[in-house]
Amino acid sequence: MTARELLPGIFAVGAIDWDRRLFDELISLPDGTSHNSYLIRGSEKTLLIDTVDPPFALTLFDHLDSLGVTAIDYVVANHAEQDHSGTLGTLLSRYPMARVVTNAKCRDMLKDLLQIPDDRFLVIQDREQLSLGNRTVEFLITPWVHWPETMVTYLHGDGVLFSCDFFGSHYATSELFTDDNPTVYEAAKRYYAEIMMPFRSSIRENLEKIAPLAIRIIAPSHGPVYRKPEFILAAYRDWVSDRVENRVVIPYVSMHGSTAAMVRHLVDALMDRKIPVQPFNLTVTDTGDLAKALVDAATLVVATPTTLFSPHPKAMYAVILVNLLRPKTRWVTVIGSYGWGGKTLQMIKENLPHLKAELLEPVMVKGFPRGEDMAALDRLADAIAERHRTLGSPEGGGP
Ligand code: FEO
Asked: For the purposes of burial, counting CB atoms within 10 Å of the CB of 384, is it exposed (0-12), middle (13-18) or buried (19 or more)?
């Protein structure tokens, strides 16, 4: 792979990470990822946007060498996380005149994480511009697209927004650009679910902040470059909106079949009521698939047996994940079977403080579900159907 040209004088110099399958030791990457870095040549100055994950440092340097880059004036750090910043130290040694351009908060984090010396930084303010001669970049501080220090860099004239994690996707592809590829849409939605969803309101503000820019290209630091930016901008506007879909997500686990029987009955009852439903068996499901389903589902039903005195640990893992990701789910409940008692319901409720959803009547059953238990599940399906009928308007959402 060689450096690839986005526009005259602008190159993608990062690395495709075909084999990566786990990020942050948490997030699965079924399609790999890429660590994008971009070189911008101005008539007077040369600027690099972000670096790469350290194992790919040589790829970055090979690309810079292939372009005959012997000096870099500025390295923009849009984000302090090490998949973008981890090669900064090596890069600064290789290009001793380079200065790290970033905001004060990101500078402080880079000093903590990477021990970059203070005198290597050029600290910028929100909306500050930097001239490269015949080209000018502008920095917009956009907190919480992924961490509190994140910012984006806009190249005037060419209309390129270098957005780092914002609008990214964990998707390894040999294609530099994407237009409206549905596979990229799904990868970007999964990425949003895992990385961005907890910061929905901040992202909404950041979308408004960048809206006045004349954006012709969005070049994130993961995944392909958007040549039709409206494709991903519209997707983000939808994901951060309050719209939810007429859909129920059921993460479940069952030890001896009782909870599974309840899930099967509820799935059928919801289908009978024309409500789309997605059960996720937590012993085999990928948490990224579950997270993606939660982006816009109206209702969440956690289904778990009581294991000794508590929810099954796999169900608890899903509950903690939901609480971390803070989906816009409107309704939530719990179903499951127990042998002699326990605190399953209480523990699940206590571990979902960030989910701003109405709790529907849970269905907790002693032993294997009987006729009256199935009737309770039917009533739950009725309650869900009644709530979902309120989702009719475009604002309320739902097909
Ligand atoms: Fe791609 Fe938040 O790092």
From this structure: buried
CB 107 within 8 A of CB 98: no
Q: How far is the CA of 115 from the centre of ligand 1 (A)?
A: 19
How many whole angstroms from 83 Cα to the centroid of ligand 1? 6
- Indicate which atom in ligand 1 lies nearest the CA of residue 165: 1
Ligand 1: centre distance to CA 84 (Å): 7
pLDDT digits (tens, 9 = 90+) for 113-127: 999 999 999 999 999
Q: Judging by DSSP bridges, how do beta strands 4-7 and 33-35 pair with one another?
A: unpaired
CB-based contact 142:150 (threshold 8 Å): yes
The pLDDT, as a whole number, for residue 394 is 43
276/290 Cα distance (integer angstroms): 15
The protein residue whose alpha carbon is closest to atom 3 in ligand 1 is 81
CA 376 – ligand 1 centroid, Å: 45
- Ligand 1 atom closest to 35 (CA): 1
Residue 168 CA: nearest ligand 1 atom is: 1
Residue 120 burial class via C-beta count within 10 angstroms: exposed 0-12, middle 13-18, buried 19 and up: middle
Q: Tell whether the model's pLDDT for residue 69 goes beyond 60.
A: yes
**How many whole angstroms from 247 Cα to the centroid of ligand 1?**
30
Q: Can you list the domains of the chain with their CATH numbers?
A: 4-240 (3.60.15.10), 245-386 (3.40.50.360)
CB 76 within 8 A of CB 91: no
Q: Does residue 146 have its Cβ closer than 6 Å to ligand 1?
A: yes
35 lines ligand 1 (CB under 6 A): no
Instruction: For 245-303, write each residue's pLDDT tens digit.
Output: 999 999 999 999 999 999 999 999 999 999 999 999 999 999 999 999 999 999 999 99
The closest-lying atom of ligand 1 relative to the alpha carbon of residue 164 is 1
Closest atom of ligand 1 relative to the 195 alpha carbon: 2
> What is the distance in A from the centroid of ligand 1 to the CA of 354?
23
Average pLDDT, the chain: 96
Own/partner contacts of 316-321, CB < 8 Å, gap of 24 or more, are 316/347, 316/348, 316/351, 317/282, 317/287, 318/251, 318/282, 318/287, 318/290, 319/348, 319/351, 319/352, 320/351, 321/287, 321/290, 321/291
Question: Is the predicted pLDDT of residue 397 greater than 60, yes or no?
Answer: no
